[in-house]
Design a protein that fits this description.
Blueprint lengths: L5 E4 L3 H12 L5 E5 L10 E4 L2 E4 L10 H10 L12 E4 L2 E4 L15 E5 L2 E5 L2 E4 L6 H7 L1 H16 L8 H9 L1 H16 L8 H8 L4 H14 L12 E5 L3 H14 L3 E4 L2 E8 L2 E8 L5 E5 L2 E4 L3 H7 E2 L4 H9 L2 E11 L4 H4 L9 E4 L8 E4 H4 L10 E9 L4 H4 L2 H15 L7 E14 L4 H4 L1 H9 L4 E3 L2 H4 L5 H16 L26
Parallel strand pairs: 1-2, 1-15, 2-11, 8-18, 12-16, 15-22
Antiparallel strand pairs: 3-4, 5-6, 7-10, 8-9, 12-13, 13-14, 17-20, 17-21, 18-19, 19-20
């Protein structure tokens, strides 16, 4: 018998991974529908006058060996300038990336580079370690008296932790103390999500932050002072990572080319708006191109990475009333990047250099709307057309019905330039150019009454026996691109096994760990 066709909705990391895994395994008919003209979803790279924008920043590092190998199979790692093996470093450990006989060079176009990681918090005109940790820098910047208040607040929280730990506010206070929470976590987190920390589940913090706390950081700092070593059993954020030479989109554009070369059909600019089912089986998907043209696709299996809210609303007949109400109530956060090209950053922060060494700068300063600043020069020098300029990405978090999202491009550019001046990070007189990029539904919302009932909706959707949900928006889960790829791999395996094993997809990214911590084999 001929195998039924597989249709994949979305050409981001999850969709392209699922498509390639099916084709590599010999599956004969695979189609990907991508609603936009771009490849990579939120992991795409946008070019503006030769300067490239990475939406949100994408470090290519995973605890999964399978993911690391998959990436290197698509784009090899460039050999270090001095020869030998390329390695990723994290405290006390290293990870080998390739054999010394590898021939890829940085001068090649289709390669990944090993890049150093540095992210810091900017507050009160000073830089602090990210994640926050005790030390002389904290005392120097905040003052001894304020640091003693932080210590006292932390000890009080440690002595009487909030139980049960229900909200993200509880989570932060238990691990950092109320004073540090109010100083460094509350305002920034609420800027990102647009709701109070007390309205966000503690599960989000457990998944993203895990064992990081002032207590654990202090123990590690003391051990390093006394012994000169860190605890290799204690996970810590990575110190270096892989990055495609021309941005994350290069990975997915290369993967898309392989998908088509293997016989897959990739249709750009086709948005799904109807998904027809008979009882518990999806039979047909209908898409439009925005120009009045429509196509209908008979399907055997459907892998969906589209936002669950839109998925449920596209089903014909519709889900039952409770499931549809939950889906319609799910919330999202949208993302605005303002690219600013400068001659240099302010000497007050960069000294004699043209720019600081950070990949990201987390802006904790009150009175500004910007949440983070990316220095694209430090992600890859090839992201910048002219190495004698500084290419920055100012990140603003919004919702599609708020005043920030409604601002014109000129107003957003003016806001970004003004806030850089206000923060003392760059002088307006050094500005050369600016552009604006909007990314709707960048983050699924992990709050609200509908989200509290998400498992009911998931249960209803799981009842559609040939529908596989994967990816960040497809699962309404804070998946990084490696989590999205792992969920897609499991979806492909389930299709190859005739539909069995779908439940394993939901086991991805449920452990209390964070993808930037030390790796394990899987």
């Amino acid at each position: 018998m001929t195998q039924p066709s597989a249709l994949i909705i979305g050409a981001g990391p999850a969709g392209l991974t699922a498509g390639l895994e099916l084709l590599r395994a010999g599956y004969p008919q695979v189609t990907i529908l991508e609603a936009t003209d771009a490849i990579g979803g939120i992991s795409k790279t946008v070019s503006y006058k030769g300067n490239r924008i990475d939406i949100g920043g994408h470090r290519f590092f995973s605890k999964s060996d399978w993911v690391m190998d998959w990436w290197r199979d698509v784009l090899p790692v460039a050999r270090p300038a001095g020869g030998g093996d390329a390695r990723l470093a994290y405290q006390g450990q290293e990870r080998l990336l390739g054999a010394s006989q590898a021939t890829a060079r940085e001068s090649d176009d289709a390669v990944m580079l090993v890049r150093s990681r540095q992210s810091r918090i900017f507050f009160g005109g000073n830089f602090f370690d990210y994640p926050l940790k005790p030390g002389l820098d904290l005392v120097r910047n905040m003052g001894l008296g304020r640091c003693l208040q932080f210590a006292g607040s932390y000890m009080a929280a440690a002595a009487r932790p909030i139980q049960p730990e229900r909200t993200l506010e509880d989570f932060f206070i238990n691990r950092f103390g109320r004073q540090l929470y109010l100083q460094f976590f509350k305002d920034y987190t609420e800027k990102v999500w647009g709701v109070p920390c007390r309205d966000i589940s503690a599960d989000w913090g457990a998944q993203r932050i895990k064992s990081l706390s002032i207590g654990s950081a202090a123990k590690q700092a003391l051990k390093k002072i006394v012994t000169g070593k860190t605890d290799t059993q204690h996970t810590s954020l990575i110190e270096s990572f892989l990055y495609p030479k021309y941005g994350p989109g290069q990975m997915w554009e290369t993967a898309a080319a392989e998908f088509e070369r293997r016989g897959g059909r990739l249709l750009r600019g086709w948005a799904v708006d109807e998904i027809h089912r008979r009882e518990h089986l999806v039979e047909r998907v209908v898409a439009h191109d925005g120009q009045g043209q429509r196509q209908s696709f008979d399907v055997g299996h459907v892998v969906s990475t589209m936002p669950i809210r839109e998925l449920a609303q596209a089903l014909r007949p519709a889900p039952d009333a409770p499931a549809l109400a939950i889906a319609s109530g799910l919330e999202y956060r949208d993302f605005i990047t303002v690219g600013l090209l400068y001659r240099r950053m302010s000497p007050k922060v960069a000294g004699k250099a043209r720019h600081v060494s950070d990949n990201w700068i987390y802006i904790q300063e009150p009175g500004v709307k910007v949440g983070r600043v990316q220095v694209f020069n430090n992600w890859s020098p090839y992201m910048v057309a002219d190495p004698d300029t500084v290419w920055l990405g100012l990140e603003f978090f919004a919702r599609d019905d708020d005043s920030l999202w409604a601002m014109s491009e000129d107003a957003l550019k003016a806001l970004a330039v003004r806030e850089m001046q206000q923060l003392g990070l760059a002088d307006e007189a050094e500005l050369l150019d600016a552009t604006v990029l909007r990314q709707p539904k960048a983050y699924p919302g992990y709050f609200g009454a509908a989200f509290q009932r998400f498992d009911e909706l998931r249960g209803w959707l799981d009842g559609l026996s040939n529908l596989y949900l994967c990816g960040r928006n497809g699962m309404h889960r804070y998946n990084n691109q490696d989590h999205s790829m792992l969920s897609a791999r499991l979806a492909a395996q389930a299709i190859l096994n005739g539909g069995t094993g779908r439940e394993a997809i939901w086991a991805v990214n449920i452990d209390d760990d964070y993808h930037e911590e030390a790796p394990t084999k899987n």
